[in-house]
From TrEMBL:
The keyword Lyase applies. The keyword Lipid metabolism does not apply. Residues 100-268 form the Fumarylacetoacetase-like C-terminal domain. SUPFAM superfamilies: FAH. Keywords: Lyase. This is 2-oxo-3-hexenedioate decarboxylase. It is an enzyme of class 4 (lyase). It comes from Pseudaquabacterium rugosum. It comes from the Bacteria. One of its GO terms (molecular function) is 4-oxalocrotonate decarboxylase activity.
Amino acid sequence: MSTTNPLSMGRSLDERLLQALTDRVEAAQTTARAMPKLTDEVPGMTLGDGYAVQLALRDRWLATGRRQVGWKAGLTSRAKMDQMGVRVPTVGFLLADMARPESSAVRTDDLVHPRVECEIGFVLKAPLAGPDVTREQVLEATDFIVPAIEVIDSRYAGFKFDLPSVVADNSSSARYVTGGQPCGPHDLDLSSLGVVLERNGEPQAIAATAAVMGHPADAVALVAQVLHALGEALPAGSFVMSGGITEAFAVKAGDFVCARFQSLGSVGLRFV
Ligand code: 0L1
Ligand code: MG
């Protein structure tokens, strides 16, 4: 399979089309109505165009008073990367109002295709910026790590999308919750922590953190590199979700999901 250069941010959209596509993503996310993938209308859309839409959406929402707390790595599993033809994660922005309290109820009628995956969250005490941020720099810049569940929600009809479209849809970002016991980045071996993701008390997936690009801090380093290509950076205080450790699985109203992390405790959510 041919691979797309993930750091090539070439753009082709004029301003009118950029705003029209941003309108479409904003409406789909706000009303929880599925949309056709954007490349059905603009087949020549590039990855850079997808990010232009994502950042235009982010800027619209910041202008309304919503607050950005950080970024996430998406498509981190080998299987997803092979499927999408990439070797570097995508990124998506995280807003404060996407967060949900531990054990709280998440409404499913606000979402199109809700699915959950468990992740390691990094809270930074120092900025990370530049084209070649390393794992060691990520660990040095990290204040603490925390277990998290991400609720992803592709807004594309029939769950059909390609790389520019999924990036425009903010890498399917929707909700997230953190919990468990925060821990210093050097207090455990982050490459080999086990995690069990349960639904309604039954294990759905069992995995280890090495599934995230070999080491979750490597995924955060790649987030910093992609952000550099976009003219963005990770300021001190950023919250960064490093990508799914297990595969994502669909949830519906009535489900309770719990991720049990080795050494880091557990984090859960209900769906109503
Ligand atoms: O967090 C993620 O890995 C984003 C996945 C984007 C594609 C999808 O919705 O499956
Ligand atoms: Mg994720």
